[in-house]
Amino acid sequence: MATVVATAPLAESPVTIAPAPSTARSIRRRILERGRDQAVPDRAVLVLHDVSKQYPNGKLALRDVDLVVPEGDFVFLVGPSGAGKSTLIKLIIRDEVASHGEVVLDGQDLARLARRHVPRMRRKIGIIFQDFKLLPTKTVWENVAFALEVTGYPRRQIPPAVDRVLAIVGLTAQARQTPNQLSGGEQQRTAIARALVHDPRLIIADEPTGNLDPLISWEILQLLLRINELGVTVLMATHNAEVVTALRKRVVALEEGRIIRDEVGGAYHRED
Amino acid sequence: MVTFIVFSLKRAWQGFWRNALMSIAATATMVLMLMLLAGFWIIQTGLLAGLQFTEQKVEVVAYLQPNATDSQVAKLKSTLEAMPQVAGATVVTRDEALTRFQESMKAQGREDLTQYLDINPLFASIEVKLVDPSSVRVVGDAMRNEPIVRNVINIEDLVDRVLTVTSILRTAGTVVLLVVGVIVLFIIVNTIRLAVFARAEEIEIMRLVGASDAFIRWPFVFEGAFVGFLGAVITLVVLAVAADPIGGFMVEFFRVLPIQVGTLTRDLVTLVMGAGVGLGILGSWLSVRTYLIR
After folding, report:
1. Which of A45, A89, A205, B67 is deepest in the core (most CB within 10 A)?
2. B101-151, pLDDT tens digit by residue?
3. Separation of alpha carbons B204 and B195, rounded Å
């Protein structure tokens, strides 16, 4: 049943994804260069080693979490609400610091990262949220350009970079519209374009389809898969069992702060 | 660096106009608070000037012996003028004293009684102005010890009482001004905090896409400075417009006081501008800081 639903929209998707050879090339080139420069044999984007997180109120949100995400992986993070998914994401973007253990992103231990280096590190991550987090007073184009402007990107290089990612997500025609003129799916694609514009190593999607209907959810999924094919690692937290089970990607299941399952080609629920 | 400043100014300008309601509310609050501050400051300046005027009236008068020679008087005058507490000394001869008396009687419309006298009954005197009225005792005692001084008018107790009152008024004025200043500070900082709070999501997005603290902070600081500047300009325009009718009413009062309108205006512009822009910057800085410390 799930497979039928999964394949149909995949085959005849309404989303037309423009070819973006320049981005694809730049990402691949970067991967090659990194391989040459760095002596790290396994190019893991993200490594969590023995990570625990206890909040000041005493709540233990994560315990003894070990996770390795290699470059180019597509990982579903599943689990009931309160299982620790959000905490895990906060640790990766260093909104919180682990109470114990190491969170290593792109070879950098986040606990030892000086505060002033955090912004630079965050540019290696693109984040997508359930509620899109777009600025309502700005157009699609400005929302994407905003991410470059506020990080001090050279002004002349902003327009081509924005046009490129808008082409990848298929929003070139909607560039001058504001978020409230867009459908939910288009808003989420704007958010994905913004996440992509820094040429990130890792895309973190926190319930990206939570506010979208099933068909649009599949559009967004396809877009993330396409981005993954371009070489960007994707970590997606979701409750969407259908999608997870249909795609047979790597599934990491959290429960009460522990990883209870980590299988490649897994389903949303345990299959014994 | 230039790119950064241009970026920050542009973002500040956009931020002001794209959140027009909040910006107008903040500016209006700024104007009201600056007017309050300026009003109290003007009152305080007037009060201080009035008190200074009163204190300058304190004068120690010594009557001289009739047999004192001109050289003795001149020597006493120079001795007194050499004292650090003395601002100036004037000798009033017997003839001058008589003229003064006659003029004062005439001014009051009373009969000049001296016309019935063959001789001038008045004493010559020396009038000493003081740098600080609290030194009245020192100067008075010094004059009493001079042999050619007949007597010194005893004003010490009166001066003490005046000084008590003026010092209380001075302290009270300063305290009121400080309290008003603190109130203005809190209200302005809180208003700007609300304006920044309304844009918490924007700040959060900036953090998530990897904006450094400076890129988040400075546009808001410039915007706060702009709100302060605009508020100060509006306040000063309103004060300038209101100054004529109020000034016309009070000009007679102010003429006697040792206030220079030029200095007053300059100080007022400095105060309103400084408070407006300064508090705008402070408010923004503190408000954004709460989002940056994590």
Report:
1. A205
2. 888 888 888 887 777 888 888 888 999 888 888 888 888 888 888 888 888
3. 15
Question: How many CA atoms within 13 Å lie on the side-chain side of B222?
Answer: 19
- Residue pair B226/B13 in contact (Cβ under 8 Å)? The answer is yes
Distance of CA A251 to the CA centre of its chain: 15
pLDDT digits (tens, 9 = 90+) for A38-57: 444 457 899 999 999 999 99
Judge whether residue A37 has pLDDT over 50: no
B289-293: long-range contacts, CB 8 A cutoff, minimum separation 24: B289/B217, B291/B196, B291/B200, B291/B203, B291/B204, B291/B207, B291/B216, B292/B213, B292/B216, B292/B217
Q: Does the pLDDT at position B153 exceed 80?
A: yes
With a cut of 60, say whether residue A9 has pLDDT above it.
no
Query: Taking each helix axis from N to C terminus, what angle separates B156-197 and B261-292, rounded to the nearest 10 degrees?
Result: 40
Task: Name the amino acid, one letter, at A48.
Answer: L
Please report residues of B whose CB lies closer than 8 A to that of A122: 207-210
User: Residues 6 or more apart from A107 whose CB is under 8 A from it?
Assistant: A38, A40
Interface test with A, best of B3, B18, B205 (most A CBs within 10 A): B205
pTM of the model: 0.73
Among candidates B3, B210, B216 on the partner chain, residue whose Cβ is nearest the Cβ of A155: B3
Per-residue pLDDT, B250: 64
pLDDT score, position B247:
65
**Which of B10, B17, B209, B216 has the highest number of chain A CBs within 10 A, making it the mutation to test binding with A?**
B209
Token pair, residue B135, equals 């030194």
Strand A233-237 relative to strand A202-206, pairing: parallel
B211-224 burial: b if 16+ Cβ within 10 Å, else e: bbbebbbbbbbbbb
- Determine how β-strand B86-92 pairs with β-strand B125-130: antiparallel
